[in-house]
Write a structure and sequence with these properties.
The complex is a heterodimer of chains A (429) and B (542). Chain A has 17 helices and nine strands. Chain A has 429 residues and is an alpha/beta fold. Chain A folds into three domains: 210 residues, NADH-ubiquinone oxidoreductase 51kDa subunit (Rossmann fold, 3-Layer(aba) Sandwich), CATH 3.40.50.11540; 84 residues, Roll (Ubiquitin-like (UB roll)); 90 residues, NADH-ubiquinone oxidoreductase 51kDa subunit, iron-sulphur binding domain (de novo design (two linked rop proteins)). In chain A, the strands form two sheets. In chain A, strands 6-5-9-7-8 form a five-stranded mixed β-sheet, with helices on both faces. In chain A, helix 3 packs across helix 6, helix 6 crosses helix 9 and helix 14 runs antiparallel to helix 15. The longest helix of chain A is centred in the C-terminal third of the chain and has 18 residues. Chain A starts with 21 loop residues before the first helix and ends in an 11-residue tail after the last helix. Chain B is of the alpha+beta class and 542 residues long. Chain B is 29% helix and 19% strand. Chain B is built from 17 helices and 25 strands. In chain B, the strands form seven sheets. Chain B has a seven-stranded mixed β-sheet with strand order 15-14-22-21-20-16-17, with helices on both faces. In chain B, strand 21, helix 13 and strand 22 form a beta-alpha-beta unit. In chain B, helix 8 packs across helix 14, helix 9 packs parallel to helix 10 and helix 11 packs across helix 12. The mean pLDDT of chain B is 95. Classes of the chains: A alpha/beta (429), B alpha+beta (542). The interface between A and B is medium-sized, with 29 and 33 residues.
């Protein structure tokens, strides 16, 4: 097991002054990887990323190289690279750090990815609330363009790539890749029916790859240091360095870099500095609000895609929210449900109607009005949403609600029996 | 087109490759529920009521958004599908007001039907429902968002068929709603179709609002006669009130697909909201007096006979009408052109600019039967004179008897002052029509005809398709179908040896005697009509 002592990769410059500038980035081998990539064929680059084992850091963990490989090779067709910087899930704030502190790392990864899939245009879709980051990122794009790293004939290679930043308008659903594509096209950000998948028919009807910020930030390192190096970090099939965004009841919340597979306990205790006041960990949402909660007893688990799936939860974006024993689980579930109710796009019946129903049921239980029958209805509503919608937001709303009930059923029943919240006055009240 | 073999609930069926599973399921005879899916609109796959199982796939799929592939086995009769669909029904109803007893859609509502078929008898949703105020959105529609299930059909009809973004989905989550933007109203002339395709009572027709329960109506399959397109319609007639209360679209893929325009939808107003002529009228020195049909026909016929005998056939002019049926055109030709040998026989054209939408055109020719009139009562190539010539001749006093087979505003027949002079100078003016007009006000004889809702008959649309219009009702009074009036007149004139007791038999006579119609029969026209045998149609219409 790799431990906390491993060298920083993605965050190697973030502590430096002016880490967001081209000058600092270049001093740390910045854009070396781009030069290397451009000297190889696109297929060689794709192959390298495939072998590195890099999996998408946006939550789904799909192998990045494989995704790139889906894009048709025909040279005559316009292709697009879209960067998903719409990081909006409660608990997730790791992409924000890259945009803020090391935007060139993202741009370099974007350029390499664009080269690999044959895209001459890339769009960075950044969350509307990230105003400061958008400013930094757009300045970085200008800097890179002035240095001949963006635009025509990049580094004299003959490869052209324009990068355009697009600021979202505040909808979580635009982080869903096809919702994002619709939004980029100037439409309502409603996820599309799939198939066709974006790799075949994406932005403006053209083959498109949508990659997460952190995913692309990994790419220059793979190219520069070799896929073997990357594949050597972390457990099998869950390779590479990872940014963990720690929040909630930890002494030192923040973004930390550690290898994939770092145990959750290590993240909480060593990186996060443990729980304030030495209180016990009651629950952890491991990777953003859509991931089913873990009980405090379950934190001896490697933080990676496969381990969390095996544990009945999800790795998601790898951003644990830690809750101590003052937190009411019903209220936490309600807050999560409220988020998904607000962010449901309104397109599919089960999600549009079901999320609000879940929220109402949870509030009813939390305020002491609930019955055991309500608990049954709650579980049945989650079943009725899951798997029945166009995109995964429906699932993302159903999983946490069901997770909270499953892991903390006693506490739900206690609310119902005592007709009040037993943790009144706790952290979330 | 390549075909594939698939199974739906074990029933094997061969369908076009890629055909969506809702259509494929129907072909296999399996019930496929649908709210958002409409064959004439883009697939959005949002309502989720058509979720079905495909053998070997882990998740349910939306049938409307899934294409048929070789060997696919679709399952709708499984617990998983039943549960998923029941869940969708439950979700759709949690905020629905269940106000069916006072909803115009009640009785023909998909949500109501499916609730009875597969919905729960009790609600598990014990919270206050979201409510919205009612809203006028233009397009003669009232929007009741409480009933809306956000199927998007209205939005897609406006966007895709009419090409207008006049109505949109707004906000998100359970606050998502359909609405107009910035106070702008729906203005496109296809908006009435929304009331037809709205699967619930969210967008209902103002015209039909609270008029009747749908099951009180007798629905008659007919065609619209407001332009040469010949859209297929369903005429909703209220027997107790003896009134047509609405006209809705009827699918005919060769003519109007699923749509009609709002003019046709409001066609019944032209029949009920006008001053109807209900008995024959004779006007002497400006004073009108009721006449019997027998007297009217006898006197008009002897008058025409006398005029011809004294002044020759050019002293009589007939302004026919392309609003009339083929049967009436046939009689017009037989009596006036062939029987009396008149050259003064023509009908007025009624052109207007067409209204072109991306997927629907309202034709510019406002006559529903220009082709039938040309084929059966035409005099071009036989020395016939035009409407303008006939009116001019009458204005100059060369025509003594003028028969109009339809009235209307004088402008329809040319320069109103010339028309006025013609009416002044002609010794006898006869107008057949069902509504009063400046023409009937000045006629010496007014014969009460009927609207197209009140008679059987056929029309030929601009594509050369022969279609049946059906009699829906009889107005109280002493009106007569024009084909009867013409037969009576022809008989009294002694130029029509044979008469037929129905439009059907007249049509079959046409089919026997007019080459362009060879091979057609009234029965064979059915509900959807049939094209004229093409070669002859093209020659004759040219």
């Amino acid at each position: 097991m790799t431990t906390a002592t491993s060298e920083p990769v993605l965050t190697r410059t973030v502590g430096l002054r002016d880490s967001h500038t081209l000058e600092v980035y270049r001093k740390h081998d910045g854009y070396e990887a781009l030069r290397i990539a451009l000297s190889k064929s696109p297929d060689e680059v794709i192959d390298m990323v495939k072998r590195s084992g890099l999996r998408g850091r946006g939550g789904a963990g799909f192998p990045t190289g494989t995704k790139w490989g889906f894009v048709p090779k025909a040279a005559d067709k316009q292709k697009y690279m879209c960067v998903n910087a719409d990081e909006s899930e409660p608990g997730a704030f790791k992409d924000r750090l890259i945009c803020q502190k090391d935007p060139h790392q993202l741009l370099e990864g974007t350029l390499i990815g664009s080269y690999a899939i044959g895209a001459s245009r890339a769009y960075i879709y950044i969350r509307g609330e990230f105003a400061a980051e958008a400013e930094i990122l757009s300045r970085a794009i200008e800097e890179a363009r002035a240095a001949g790293l963006v635009g025509r004939n990049i580094l004299g290679s003959g490869f052209d790539c324009e990068i355009t930043m697009y600021v979202g308008a505040g909808a979580y659903i635009c982080g869903e890749e096809t919702g994002m594509i619709e939004s980029l096209e100037g439409k309502r950000g409603w996820p599309r029916l799939k198939p066709p998948f974006p790799a075949i028919k994406g932005l403006f009807g053209c083959p498109t790859v949508v990659n997460n910020v952190e995913t692309l930030a990994c790419v220059p390192h793979i190219v520069r240091r070799g896929w073997e190096w990357f594949a050597g970090i972390g457990p099998e099939r869950n390779t590479g360095p990872k940014l963990y965004g720690m929040s909630g009841h930890v002494v030192k919340p923040g973004v930390y870099e550690a290898p994939m597979g770092t145990p959750l306990r290590v993240l909480i205790e060593e990186y996060g500095g443990g729980v304030p006041g030495g209180r016990p960990v009651k629950a952890v949402i491991p990777g953003g609000a859509s991931c089913p909660v873990l009980r405090g007893e379950e934190i001896d688990i490697p933080m990676d895609f496969d381990s969390l799936t095996r544990a009945g939860s999800l790795f998601g974006t790898g951003t644990p929210v830690v809750m101590d024993d003052t937190v009411c689980m019903v209220r936490a579930a309600w807050i999560t449900a409220r988020f998904f109710t607000h962010e449901s796009c309104g397109q599919c019946t089960p999600c549009r109607e079901g999320t609000g129903w879940l929220q109402r049921l949870l509030w009813k239980i939390e305020t002491g009005e609930g019955t055991e029958r309500d608990l049954g209805i709650l579980l049945s509503v989650t079943d009725n949403i899951e798997g029945n919608t166009i995109c995964a937001l429906g699932d993302a709303a159903a999983w946490p609600a069901r997770g909270f009930v499953k892991k903390f059923k006693d506490e739900f029943l206690q609310h119902i029996r005592e007709k009040r919240c037993p943790l009144e006055g706790g952290s979330l009240h | 087109m390549a075909t594939v073999k698939i199974k739906v609930d074990g029933r094997e069926v061969t369908v076009e490759k890629g055909l969506n599973l809702v259509e494929a399921g129907k072909k296999a005879g399996v019930f496929m529920p649908q709210f958002c899916y409409h064959p004439g609109l883009p697939v959005v796959g949002v309502c989720r009521i058509c979720l079905c199982e495909i053998e070997g796939r882990p998740k349910l799929v939306a049938g409307c958004a899934t294409g048929a592939e070789e060997g696919m086995s679709v399952i709708t009769r499984s617990a998983a599908v039943r549960e998923a669909r029941a869940a969708v029904m439950e979700f759709l109803l949690i905020h629905h007001p269940l106000d069916c007893p006072m909803c115009d859609k009640g009785g023909e509502c998909t949500l109501q039907d499916y609730t009875i078929a597969m919905g729960a008898a009790h609600t598990r949703f014990a919270f206050r429902k979201n409510t919205w105020p009612q809203e006028d959105v233009g397009g003669k529609l009232i929007l009741d968002k409480n009933r809306c299930i956000l199927c998007m059909r209205c939005v897609n009809l406006c966007a895709d068929v009419a090409g207008k973004d006049e109505i949109a989905v707004l906000s998100r989550g359970e606050e998502t709603y359909i609405g107009t933007v910035g106070g702008r109203m729906i203005e496109n002339e296809l908006a009435g179709n929304i009331a037809d395709i709205c699967p619930v009572g969210a967008l209902t027709s103002k015209d039909f609002r609270f008029e009747a329960r749908p099951w009180e109506l007798t629905n008659v399959k007919s065609v619209c006669t407001l332009c040469s397109k010949g859209c297929n319609t369903i005429v909703g007639f209220h027997p107790r009130r003896n009134k047509v209360l609405r006209v809705t679209a009827r699918e005919n893929m060769d003519v109007n697909q699923w749509w009609i325009c709002d003019r046709g939808r409001g066609q019944f107003h032209n029949v009920h909201d006008v001053v109807r002529i209900v008995e024959p009228l004779r006007r002497v020195n400006g004073a009108g007096r009721t006449a019997s049909w027998t007297d009217a026909i006898t006197e008009i016929a002897s008058g025409i006979r006398e005029t011809i005998a004294r002044h020759g056939p050019d002293s009589v002019g007939v302004i026919a009408s392309a609003e009339l049926t083929n049967e009436e055109q046939f009689l017009t030709g037989r009596i006036f052109r062939d029987g009396l040998g008149l050259s003064n026989l023509d009908f007025p054209a009624r052109p207007q600019p067409p209204v072109v939408y991306p997927k629907f055109t309202i034709e510019g020719d406002k006559n529903p039967n220009t082709r039938g009139a040309r084929l059966l009562a035409g005099t071009s190539g036989r020395g016939g004179r035009s409407v303008a010539d006939i009116i001019a001749a009458a204005a100059e006093g060369r025509i003594r008897t003028l028969l109009f087979l339809r009235g209307g505003p004088p402008e329809e027949f040319g320069d109103p002052t010339v028309v006025g002079r013609a009416l002044d100078r002609a010794a006898t003016v006869i107008v057949v029509d069902y509504a009063t007009s400046p023409m009937t006000e000045r006629a010496h004889w007014v014969l009460p005809g009927v609207s197209s809702f009140e008679k059987d008959g056929t029309f030929i649309n601009s594509q050369g398709r022969v279609q049946r219009s059906r009699k829906v009702f009889t107005l109280r009074g002493d009106t007569r179908e024009e084909w009867r009036i013409l037969q009576d007149l022809g008989a009294a004139l002694g130029v029509l040896p044979e008469t037929d007791p129905s439009a059907e038999l007249i049509f079959d006579r046409i089919a026997r005697t007019v080459p362009a119609f060879a091979g057609l029969s009234y029965t064979a026209l059915g509900d959807l009509g049939a094209p004229l045998p093409s070669a002859s149609a093209n020659v004759a219409v040219g």
